Structures are given as C-alpha cells and as structure tokens.
From TrEMBL:
Superkingdom: Archaea
GO BP term, pick one: iron-sulfur cluster assembly
Binding positions (ATP): 37-44
Keyword entries, A-Z: ATP-binding, Hydrolase, Iron, Iron-sulfur, Metal-binding, Nucleotide-binding
Coiled-coil zones: none
Metal-binding is among the record's keywords: yes
Protein task: Binds and transfers iron-sulfur (Fe-S) clusters to target apoproteins. Can hydrolyze ATP.
Keyword Iron: yes
One Gene Ontology term, aspect cellular component: cytosol
Gene3D superfamilies: P-loop containing nucleotide triphosphate hydrolases
Name of the featured protein: Iron-sulfur cluster carrier protein
A molecular function GO annotation: ATP binding
Summary of subunit composition and partner proteins: Homodimer.
Length: 277
C-alpha cells in the first residue's frame, strides 16, 4: 500500500519532459515566415534585408534559410564559405554580426554546385533538425525564408512550430505571379497563420536621370488580392540595381545606403516592429 502511495506521489511530482523542439525555441519571441507564390520575385532579398534591418535597429535576429534546393541566403551575406560549429547546446548558426545569425543547408554543402536531391520526408527531417538542434539562443525574431509555393517546406514549418506569429508574402505586379500568390494567401488563411501583409516587389524602375519611378508591369492585381484577402500592402519596392548587386557581393548587412528603395523598405521594417512591440 505504502509503495503504491509513494509511486503515486512520485508520478505527481515528476515533471513532464517537454519536446526538444519546444524547449530549443523557447527563447524566441517572434517567429515570422517570408513566402511567395512563385520563384524569382525577390523573396529571399526581402528576407535578408528584413533580418539585416532589424539587426541594425538593435534586435536579436536569426535567419533560417529553409529553401533546401535553392539556398541563396549564405551568398547574400558573404558567408558561403563558412561552416557551422557544434557547441554544448547544439549546432551553432553562423554569426553575421553580434545580433544576427544564419542557418542554411547551403552552409553544409561541400560543393555549392551539388544539387540536393531529396524527397519530402528527407526535407522535413532537415527542417526539423534546423529548428530542434540548432542553438538559436534568445532572439527577438526568427525569420524563416521559405521556398516558393505551398508544398512540403512551408507545411512542415507550420506543423513543427505549431504557432507562427506572422507571415509576409512577396510578389511582383505581374498577373502570372498573382495567380500563384493568391494560393499563398489562402495557405496562411487555411493554416491560421497571421498575415502581416504583402510586399509588391519590382513595382517599377527608378530613372537614373530624373529619379522618377517608371512602371514596368502595370495593373492593379496586387491591390485586388490585398483587398480580397483583407491584408495591407506593406510596401511597393522598385527595381534597384544596387540592391541586387549588394546581395551578389555578399554585403547585405553592411549595405545601409540611402535610396528610394531603402526608404520604402523601411516601411516593411516599421510594420513588423509595430506589430510585435
């Protein structure tokens, strides 16, 4: 009898061990996804510059490149030749600055030209490892750069995290891009991910002579999608050659030049800070 009582007491007093993924991400205040309906719309450029801008404002930021087949974040930060180390609490993401750290499958490949030929379960396993075994530490923001579309990676992220604090969807003004982006908007709705807003990228070109913006694609498809899904357009970003070259040269973090693009991009950063402050 006394043995049964002791067993019951020990059962009551014992702590239920929480899942490793939950405990590993406990120090992260806000988890954000950056999505797009199709490739080539500048989603990773938005992710990288958002992470860099928040870090420059003093926030502690982690950036997870979850694009298994086409990782570009390491190149944008000039860390493609770096390799993560292993610490006491897990894999250490690569530090870009004191308050900005990055993890990507691209940091684990010996040959950057080697394709990652994985099916869904292998990709989900890698993403789980990035969330569960990477020592992210204490962060104000974990920004997750997703591959285009609504397939394995976005679904895995949402299912593994359980709660995503917000999503930003990047598109261009072309109707063909908007056809796909509406599916991303519907994805966030179906999975109950709070939508921070949309970013219209490549909305025009800044004339180098008169500094006026020239519309390239035209149309009002982005405005219609935003209205249909009751979400704001956070910014309309023009095509800016210097932004593209800074990513190619790997100096996204250090590049803080004043430009029309930068002024408009700050609207995105302001919206993120306003939502979570």
């Amino acid at each position: 009898m006394s043995q049964n009582i002791q067993s019951a007491e020990s059962l009551v007093n014992s702590k239920v061990e929480e899942p490793k993924l939950v405990s590993n991400l406990r120090g992260i205040k806000n988890k954000l996804m950056v999505m797009s309906g199709k490739g080539g719309v500048g989603k990773s450029t938005v992710s990288a510059n958002l992470a860099a801008a928040l870090a420059r404002r003093g926030k502690r930021v982690g950036l997870l490149d979850s694009d298994i087949h086409g990782p570009s974040i390491p190149t944008m930060f000039g860390i493609a030749d770096k390799r993560p180390e292993v610490g006491e609490k897990g894999i250490l993401p690569v530090q870009v600055a004191d308050n900005l750290k990055v993890m990507s499958i691209g940091l684990l490949l010996d040959d950057p030209d080697s394709p990652v030929v994985w099916r869904g379960p292998a990709k989900m396993g890698a993403i789980k490892q990035f969330l569960e075994e990477v020592d992210w530490g204490v962060l104000d923001y974990l920004i997750i750069d997703l591959p285009p579309g609504t397939g394995d990676e976005p679904l895995s992220i949402v299912q593994l995290l359980g709660k995503v604090d917000g999503a930003i969807i990047v598109t261009t003004p072309q109707d063909v891009a908007l056809t796909s982006v509406r599916k991303s908007l519907k994805f966030t709705e179906m999975l109950e991910v709070p939508l921070i807003g949309m970013v219209e990228n490549m909305s025009g070109v800044i004339c180098p002579h008169c500094n006026e913006e020239i519309q390239v694609f035209g149309g009002e498809s982005v405005e219609k999608a935003a209205k249909d899904f009751n979400t704001p357009i956070l910014a309309t970003l023009p095509i800016e050659p210097d932004v593209s070259s800074s990513g190619d040269k790997g100096d996204v973090y250090v590049n803080d030049d004043k430009s029309i693009w930068k002024e408009k991009f700050d609207l995105i950063v302001n919206s993120v800070e306003e939502k979570f402050n």
